[in-house]
């Protein structure tokens, strides 16, 4: 029986894919696992890595960039493991992280999804690895800076839960899609990732549905992975910026619109698209100024 199905979505991830795969095969010895790499039509050399693992990895190729949710779903539908892990190609598995997470899930049958401690390359905690649902109030505290000013305040710092000890096991609302281990029974109950989300927000949406179905979502910091965040995407591309803010809109539209008045909804939509407009203008202006500087 396969214990764990590891799903990695690759899109121009360069050398990170090899480093991630090496960390899996070097450190994971005590469980039976399978690995899927779903490639979103990469144009770099990252696929050359897969030739080193010809007999171990199932490669699924898309003819275009289908996005994170759709690509993951393609592999999840073929996965045979008792648990499924979403893993970014820029994440490095440290030690027996996968075995420890799987063992903790085996011991706690009410946990539907588990995330480990995710550390950035420079050593700090990736705050996205444990979050609250972005209700209008929680999002407002973050948007106006209260969560940053009062990181230990239980009301203002709900978005990234920075008031919690990062080394303590905690039940949370949201895990990060860069590392999320989910029970097969949960996937069968709540369904796959929502493909309306292209590359942001699908992890929040999945966690929302998992928790709504009565399962626990747990942050388990007794083991870790290193996330070389941004190693696989150009964070400043207009398309990426658009998808980031569109994900906010989609999540609110799907889960919160019916709970709030049209006034609150209007304010939320205005804040989302207003911030998008400012961000895209600043990005384009920066690229224009950089281009002029280069051409001088």
Describe the structure.
By secondary structure, this protein is an alpha/beta fold. It is built from 9 helices and 9 strands. The chain is globular, with a radius of gyration of 19 Å. It folds into 2 domains: 4-131 and 172-227, Spore Coat Polysaccharide Biosynthesis Protein SpsA, Chain A; 238-295. α8 packs antiparallel against α9 (262-295). Strands 1, 2, 3, 4, 5, 6, 7, 8 and 9 form a 9-stranded mixed beta sheet that branches. It has helices spanning 16-27, 68-76, 97-107, 136-143, 146-149, 184-190, 202-212, 238-255, 262-295; strands spanning 4-10, 33-39, 57-61, 83-87, 91-93, 111-120, 170-171, 179-183, 216-227.
Draw up the topology in text.
Blueprint: E1 4-10, H1 16-27, E2 33-39, E3 57-61, H2 68-76, E4 83-87, E5 91-93, H3 97-107, E6 111-120, H4 136-143, H5 146-149, E7 170-171, E8 179-183, H6 184-190, H7 202-212, E9 216-227, H8 238-255, H9 262-295
Helix pairs in contact: 8-9
């Amino acid at each position: 029986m396969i214990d764990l199905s590891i799903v990695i979505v690759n899109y121009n991830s360069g050398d990170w894919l090899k480093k991630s795969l090496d960390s899996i095969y070097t450190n994971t010895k005590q469980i039976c696992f399978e690995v899927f790499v779903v490639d979103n039509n990469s144009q770099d050399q990252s696929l050359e890595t897969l030739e080193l693992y010809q007999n171990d990895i199932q490669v699924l190729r898309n003819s275009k960039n289908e996005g994170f949710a759709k690509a993951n779903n393609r592999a999840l539908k073929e996965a045979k493991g008792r648990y499924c892990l979403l893993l970014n190609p820029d994440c490095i598995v440290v030690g027996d992280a996968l075995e420890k997470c799987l063992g903790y899930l085996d011991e706690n049958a009410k946990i539907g999804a588990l995330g480990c401690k995710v550390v950035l390359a420079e050593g700090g905690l990736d705050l996205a690895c444990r979050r609250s649902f972005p209700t209008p109030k929680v999002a407002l505290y973050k948007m106006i800076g209260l969560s940053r000013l009062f990181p230990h305040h239980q009301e203002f710092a709900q978005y990234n839960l920075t008031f919690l000890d990062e080394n303590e096991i905690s039940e949370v609302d949201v895990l990060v899609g860069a590392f999320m281990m989910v029970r097969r029974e949960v996937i069968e109950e709540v369904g796959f990732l929502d493909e309306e989300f292209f590359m942001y927000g699908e992890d929040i949406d999945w966690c929302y549905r998992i928790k709504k179905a009565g399962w626990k979502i747990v942050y388990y910091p007794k083991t870790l992975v290193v996330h070389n965040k941004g190693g696989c995407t150009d964070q400043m591309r207009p398309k990426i910026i658009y998808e980031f803010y569109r994900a906010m809109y989609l999540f609110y539209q799907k889960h919160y619109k019916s709970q709030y008045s049209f006034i609150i909804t209007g304010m939320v939509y205005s804040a989302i698209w207003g911030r998008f407009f400012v961000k895209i203008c600043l990005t384009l202006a920066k690229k224009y100024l950089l281009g002029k500087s280069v051409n001088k």
